[in-house]
Amino acid sequence: MEHAGLSYQILSQTKSECKVLAAVIPGPILAEYEAAVRAAGYEPGSVLSSSLAALESIDSMESVLDINLSALALTTSIINGQNLLLYRTLDLPEDPGLRLEEIKRGVAVACAYFEDKLGARPGKLHLSTMREACPGGTREFASWIDDPELTVVDLVRSLKPARPQPSAAPALPA
Question: What is the pLDDT tens value at each position of the chain, 174 positions in all?
Fold first, then answer.
């Protein structure tokens, strides 16, 4: 712990309660990320996990179950409006059969937690994944978890397109 990187953000605060999101990364892994940025000629700022970054793209006041799957890990998150109710990362085994079982178990635990906290099962699951982790995308992932009551949607494709913003730069002469 003495060499770990630690970051936190206060999510909400009242007189009697303070909800904090804390993120910890092993020092050697943080050093690798920072070295890559320095090798590219830049000075590193903050390191943010792809799972937390993906949550920022969800602009919804409804409850959302989000899954981020990489070749090495499964991260499950539940947000309810502006509240983060669950953020859990599981390292996945290398063996494909064990890996699939761990993914199924991780999704089932997240669904049960969703139901316990919010009083209803999730109707859909937002998935972000890398091609090597799940080449068939949402269809393949849906077949893995085999839950007909849970619709798997691609987080990236489900995002609302950004409105074009007026450019702050002056127009170039023709």
Answer: 788 888 888 888 899 998 888 888 889 989 998 999 999 999 988 777 888 888 877 777 889 999 999 999 999 999 988 788 999 999 999 998 899 999 999 999 999 999 999 999 999 999 998 888 888 989 999 999 999 999 999 987 655 544 444 444 444 444
Q: Residue 162: how many CA atoms within 13 Å on its side-chain side?
A: 6
Cβ neighbours of 105 (radius 10 Å)? 12
One-letter amino acid for residue 158 of the chain: S
* Nearest alpha-carbon partner for 51 in 36, 34, 31, 73: 73
The whole model's pTM is what?
0.77
Yes or no: say if 153 and 127 are a contact pair by the CB < 8 Å rule. Answer: yes
**Cα angle vertex 151, ends 147, 156, to 5°?**
135
Helix (H) or strand (E) segment spanning residue 76:
strand 73-80
The CA radius of gyration of the chain, in Å to the nearest whole number, is 19
CB 77 within 8 A of CB 155: no
Per-residue burial over 123-134, b = 16 or more CB atoms within 10 Å of its CB, e = otherwise? eebbbbbeeebb
Identify whether the C-beta of residue 28 lies closer than 8 Å to the C-beta of residue 22: no
What phi and psi values does residue 120 have, to the nearest 5 degrees? -155, 150
